[in-house]
Amino acid sequence: MDTGLVRVEHTDSPAPSETLLRLPAVKAATGLSRSTIYERIRKGTFPAPVRLGEAAVGWPASRVNEWIQCRITDRMGAYGTEPSTFCRAKVCE
Q1: Which residues pair with 59 in a beta bridge?
Q2: CA dist 58 to 25, 67, 83, 85, Å?
Q3: Distance from C-alpha of 85 to C-alpha of 69, rounded to nearest angstrom
């Protein structure tokens, strides 16, 4: 079964590996549709994917998780809690 996950090992540095999420996994994690994800990428309000090949892209899981955390923080801000400094910065750069 394809889970939509791709693990990338960094061989040039001691940095931990990064997991890349394919579109089905991003949709499942965010609850957004394909068209909404790409619309938000165009608007600069969702992380852009990285090219994996000629016809494949993936999203770094850390960036998708940051986006989700900012959505939660922004929601908390609506209830009087100050949004974090990180979430005031653009996650999608």
Answers
A1: 21
A2: 10, 15, 28, 27
A3: 12
44, 90 Cβ separation under 8 angstroms: yes
Q: What is the pLDDT of residue 53?
A: 95
DSSP state of 84: P
Q: Which helix (H) or strand (E) holds 60?
A: strand 57-60
Which domains does the chain show, CATH number per domain? Answer: 5-88 (1.10.1660)
Do residues 4 and 21 touch, judged by C-beta distance below 8 A? yes
Condensed to tens digits (0 to 9), the pLDDT of residues 11-53 reads 555 456 889 999 999 999 999 999 999 999 999 989 999 999 9
Q: Which secondary structure element, helix H or strand E, spans residue 3, and what is its range?
A: none
Question: Band of the pLDDT at 86, cuts 50, 70, 90?
Answer: very low
